[in-house]
Every structure is written in C-alpha cells, then in structure tokens.
What does this fold into?
Amino acid sequence: MSFPSDLEIARSVTPRPILDVARELGLRDDEVELYGPTKAKVRLDGIERLEAANPRGRYVVVTAITPTPLGEGKTTTTIGLTQGLQRIGKRAAVAIRQPSLGPVFGIKGGAAGGGYSQVIPMEDFNLHLTGDVHAIGAAHNLAAAFLDNHLHHGNALGIDPLSVLWPRVVDISDRAIRRAVVGLGGRENGVPRETEWQITVASEVMAVLALASDLHDLRARLGRMVLATTRDGRPITAEDLKVAGAMTVLLRDALKPNLLQTLEGGPAFVHCGPFANIAHGNNSVLADRLALVTNEIVCTEAGFGADMGAEKFFNIKCRASGLRPDAAVVVATIRALKMHGGVGRIVAGKPLDPALTSENVEAVTAGAANLAKQIDNVAAFNVPVVVAINVFPTDTDAEVEAVRQVALEAGAADAVVSRHHTDGGDGAVDLARAVWAAAETGAPDFQLLYPDDAPLLEKIEAIAVRIYGASGVDVLPAAAKALKLYEEMGFRHLPVCMAKTQYSLSHDAALKGRPSGFRVPIRDVRLSAGAGFVTPLLGEMRTMPGLPSRPGGENIDIDERGEVVGLF
It folds into this structure.
C-alpha cells in the first residue's frame, strides 16, 4: 500500500474550529477575525494585551544544511517538532512563512509541511490564504504608479528617471518581464524608461511587513523606503511622493498575523513570506511575539541553510525585534549529505539518483562537512544546536551514526533521528525532548555577528568570511559606488541582507560540501531603508524566478466535486 499524498492526509483530518484554538491561547473572541471556520487573523490589540499579561516562552529557530532542490524537510520538521513538543506535555506553537504562488505553481509545489506534519487547511495555506501577499503587491505597485505619475506630471521633485530603484512586482514566476520598458506609446502613457519586475516576496514591502512592530511602525517604515534619487543624488522616499499613507491603509489587515492549526490541532501562526536567498527569509516579528506570549515554546523556521535564513534571523530579525533565541535546530538528510560528499545528482522533478539511496558511509561522512559548518555558523551567535536527522526508509543505521558523530564532534548538543513525516508528533518525541533540554539551557551569551556602527563593507566581509568560509570579498565598481552612496546618505548603521544562491555555502551553486579558498564577488548593493537593511547581490542572483520546463501548476486542477487536486 502506497503512502498517501499530503493532500489526502490533510483531508483525512477534520479541523478544529479555529475559534477554539484561539480561545485556548487566551485570545478573546473580539480579538479574532474569522476567515471561515478554519483560519483567522489576530488583532494587534490582542497581542498587546497578552504581552502585558504573560511571560514569553522559549524561542527556537529551525534551519538546515545547505539544501538540494528537493529541500530537506525543514518546514515539515518545524511542524513535526511542534507536534512532538505537544506530545511531551508542552504548550507549543509553530510560526512559519506563507508560501509564494511562484514556487507553488513552479518547482516546489505546496509548502504547508508534509506527511503527518502539516498545517491545515493545506489548500488555503498554499493558495492565497487571507490575501496578504496580494495586499503587499497592491501596495508595492501603488508606489510604482505614484512614482511614474509624478514623472508624467512635471517631476517637481527632480527625480532622475535613470535612477529609479523601485521595480514592479507580481507573485508568479515570470522571466519574460524581468526587464522591460514602460511608458511606451506616446506622451499620454508616461515617461519611457527601463524597469524590472520582481516576485512579490522579494518586495521591500514584504520585508517591512515582516519586521514591523505595530501599525505606526509600519507607516514609518513605508515612508522611509527610497524609491529613486534626484539628479544631484538626494533620496526620494515614499513619504516624499505622499504614497506611504495609502500603502499603510492597504496593509492594515495584512499586518495582522494569521492563525491556523497543525494536523494534530495545535496552533500554527502563518504570516509573511520573504525568500531567504533574496530577502531576509523569516516570518513576521508580530506572529512570533504573539506565539511567544501564548505558549511555553515556539518553533519558527528560517529559510534555506543556516548560512542564509538563520544568519538573517539572528542579524536582522532578532536585531529588529529585540527577541533572543534559546536554541536552534539544524535539519539534515542523508541523501543531501551524500550529494555534498560528491555522490549522485538531485534534480527537482526527476527520479532520485539510485546512488543516493544506496549505503555509502564514506560519502555521508565527507558531505557532513557541510553540516559541521552550519553547526559552526549557529555557534557564531552562541546559540545551542540540536541536529534533526530527517530520515528516509533507504537510510541505514551506519549512515545515521556517521551523521551523529560528525554533529557531536562539531559541537551540537545532540543529534536525533526524527520520523515526523510518517508518524507525526509521535515520530518527533525524541527530537522534542532534545530541543526542550537545549532551550532550557538557552543562549545567555547570545551575540550578533557585527555591531551596528561597523562600516557596511566590514559587515559584508564578516558574513562572507565567518559564515560562508570565504577568504574575502571582491567589490565590483557598481557595488563600491552604492556602498559609498548609502554611507553618505546615513545608512551605515543598517545590517546587511546578502542575496546569493541557496545551493552552496558560497556564491557559486556548483561548489558543494564545505568549500574554502573562494572569494565572494559583490556585484551590486541595493538599499531597503524602510525594512532597515542593505542587500548586497552576490554573483548572478535573480529577484524574479522562472518556471521550469514542466511547471508544478500543470498538475493543479479541480476534480469532479470542485476540490483542488495536484498540490504536493
């Protein structure tokens, strides 16, 4: 008998009324805005009331080794771990990102977890949810329209059309509009200029929403966003264009965290979805704050490997929120470690290479150098690490033991096999016990990687050398010019949000395992003054993905009953 699909498993469970889940968290009915019986938004005054009344729980970030195109089950592990914590008697919640429609209809498919460790309703989770991403796209594109309208109506601010920094966005992977010319067709259609489209989750508005502490902070951050510069180099902000207030109005509901549930009926907060390869890769500060004051322990996920989402969780999200993590989980799979050890190839949408399902302890041990480096990356912030070995039926005891030995020698507090995909919370009980023990110890000496007042280039070098393992950085002329400009504008104090490939510790996706001796090219640097960081672009990093030759959306349809099929 074959293992049921994620969608079949999700539909086999009758969800609890979401109002019951909210009440168990201590929320009042008037603090919850229902979107049907199984999902809701939580009002900000409810968060403020609970923060004034309750202590914060333990804070755990789940990250991973350098992933393959198949992913290593990080979201599934985050959900399964939370269910496991509930099985050992802890009041636990999961706080994760909302997926973009780009990956859902492109290469990845659903992102609500998998197997018996999912957030439900699965279809709603993956398809629009409560419309937050669309609100972000509308607010972003409103600013773009205001900017081009200002150019059309005389350009009183003296904006240099060649200096416009603000793209347009759409939440679909569409390579054909990466670069475009707007304003064609005559005087009435605006000022012709070259521009670009990005995927919505790469928008600075998404990053702003995820980091905002309240509605007024959101308004202030939106107002600070730099959309262009004048001919003499002065920044032009959303406030200058008088569009920040209207953007805030569009985002009032999107700012409220979404409440769903796990397959086992526990609370799940789903809010914001910035990518970790081109943005900061973490869910919202507000969702974490709400989860922390309503639970004993909260598991949140940071995108991709510890060199990416976790580094940004610590250096950007924790810096902005003031919250301090108690422990981290690094997820690893045997098949990915074999690939990092030089065995087999993993291509999304293709059958798994047989070399990755045959026992090869030597390849696992060699590839586990990547795991050791990711443990070391978390250790740079003085946070205790537990390794979660996300096992598959083809993994052998000898391979698992090899991973355990490398993890413990690298400084992990524990390395635990987890079978949450097939067994739900029961399969994550051992992992839950190890994580709770690490979180109780906590991170009393938690530290950020660099101080606020360090020069921007010094911050970039700190990440490249200490986290990626590079020997240094090479700053290309466009990047050097941008860094000089941003420091002159007064943005030296901002943290940096590196944009690079997720498939290597380096900037080069072909460099697997634990590369060394490489130098990181800094091609350009972009400013996100509202979000509160600058973004160096490493190598040929794109902010608009493309669809694969066979998009996942080909499989998505409705059946004879009108129900969604094809989400995995």
